[in-house]
Amino acid sequence: MNKITKYILGIILLCTYTLQSLQAQTVYTVQIKEEIGPNAWRTMKNALAKAKESKANYFLLELNTYGGALNFADSIRTSLLNEKSFQSIVYVNNNAASAGALISLAADYIYMHAGASLGAASVVNQQGEIMPEKYQSYMRGLMRATAEAKARDPKVAEAFVDPAVSIPTLKEDGKLLTLTTSEAIKIGLAKKEVNSENEIFSDLQIKEPKVTAHQLTWVDYLIAFLINPLVSGILIMGIIGGIYFEMQSPGIGFALLIAIICATLFFAPLYLQGLADHWEIAIFVLGIILLALEILVIPGFGVAGIAGIILMLCGLAFSMVANDYFDFKLTQPGLLMNSFIIVIGAMVLTIVLMVIFGRNLLESSAFKKLVLEDEQRSDIGYTSSMTKTNLLDKVGIAKTVLRPAGKIEIDQVWYDAVALDGFIDAGEQIYVEKHENYNLFVRKLSEKNS
Q: Fewest beta carbons within 10 Å, which of 133, 158, 218, 442?
């Protein structure tokens, strides 16, 4: 290679380096100012994907949280640790407690606002009570591993969780460690005290950064609304109420449509958030099938009906919490019980409302406009039990399956009837045993003869 060629290559390399140095560095920013849960994890997941797509040089997370669910905090932590395409920054403004401390330790740089705090990461339940040692041990391991991955002091990280860890210069023995901004900077955990993002850019010598802030979409807001426990409870009521009306009123399609819509609105956002899994939706559907078989096919009420109710309960409750099949160790303590309380409470309330208002609703003119049912005219054999009161001991035939309610025919006239035996198959001969409140109560004729 001659000298001229070397000079040309040198000039090209110099120009390339100069252009790269002059090129503005890009920063993708996102804020989490809420409890660490499914919404925070969805926001972070989308923001990280957008940052990679935009080929950002830095990813800045502005954090202000008192903690949250360990499983979602661990997901965020893992994503930050595994990301190599950009450098990560956590700006604590103003709190990074518990799950927030774990996330902060996973960043390449930690900056803290004046008056901010970081630490106190013991695992607690919904009432704020300290959970047993197995939870604390797991959290200590996560904190140590995260600190070591970013070349930070694992003892400090462990002291956030374990009051037995002794660091006399920072805390009293027997107390959890919570660091102020100045303390975190003094021990090298935080890089600097700042009051704005621009001060962070200046400290990292990011000149004229091209900043892109993460924006939430209407889908994000809708999902956040739908997974609210109160809204989830209302949707469960819609599911149960729709199924109840569908089974009580043969031929009605609107009630089933309501149940399907409510089930979709219940499961879809939970599925997108990574909570509901295929198997949880499957056992809920299986529960409905078993319950329907018990009511419509199998006489009486037994194993299939009870199993159906249990599967429906479990399918709904399990979908509201994070789990690995039946392993709930990463679920926020107490959250599974709360889910069952929400589901059972919504079911009980629905049943109470159906008993009180169900008949009036079915017979209301507004509901009948939405019902797909045939007109039962007298010229084709239909009549009301009110028009015939002298039917005791009359013999007829079951025109539909009575389980226990259905249709019978006596003297070529159809009536609504209830089987006192619990189940009478279509085509069997029956006789009227009693007549109360405009209802005919019948038994199989074979039982009378016997």
A: 218
- pLDDT of 358 over the 70 cut: no
Angle at 320 between CA 314 and CA 325, to 5 degrees: 60
Single residue among 368, 395, 420 that ends a domain in this structure: 368
**pTM for this model (two decimals):** 0.67
Tokens 């194993």 — which residue?
303
Contact call for residues 331 and 37 (beta carbons, < 8 A): no
**Orientation angle between helical segments 229-248 and 278-296, nearest 10 degrees:** 30
Residues 184 and 260 in one domain: no
Indicate if 191 and 160 belong to the same structural domain. yes
Determine the average pLDDT of the residues in 367-395.
57
Closest to 401 in 3D by CA, of 384, 425, 418: 425
Q: Is 34 left (phi over 0), alpha (psi -120 to 50) or beta?
A: beta
End-to-end CA distance of the chain: give it in Å, rounded.
115
Q: Are residues 61 and 189 in the same domain?
A: yes
Beta-carbon contacts of 256 under 8 Å, excluding residues fewer than 6 positions away, are 242, 243, 246
pLDDT at 21: 46
In whole angstroms, give the CA distance from residue 429 to residue 433: 13
23 with 205: CB under 8 angstroms?
no
Domain-embedded: residue 186: yes
Element of type H or E holding 309: helix 303-318
Please tell me which residue, 329 or 135, carries the higher pLDDT value: 135
Condensed to tens digits (0 to 9), the pLDDT of residues 90-122 reads: 999 989 998 999 999 999 999 999 999 998 888
Residue 358 CB burial class (10 angstroms; 0-12, 13-18, ≥19):
middle
Is residue 373 included in any domain, yes or no? no
Residue 425 makes CB contacts below 8 A (sequence gap 6+) with: 398, 401
CA geometry: angle 5, 8, 12, nearest 5 deg: 140
Residues 248, 199 share a domain: no
Give yes or no: residues 313 and 238 share one domain: yes
Instruction: Please give the helix or strand (H or E) that residue 111 lies within, else none.
Output: strand 109-113
pLDDT grade for 2, boundaries at 50, 70 and 90: low
In 3D space, the residue among 298, 321, 301 whose CA is nearest the CA of residue 309 turns out to be: 301
Q: Of 190, 216, 242, which residue sits at a domain end? A: 216
| Number of folded domains that form the chain | 3
**Predicted pLDDT of residue 385:** 44
Q: Please write the tens of the pLDDT for every residue from 244-254.
A: 777 665 555 67
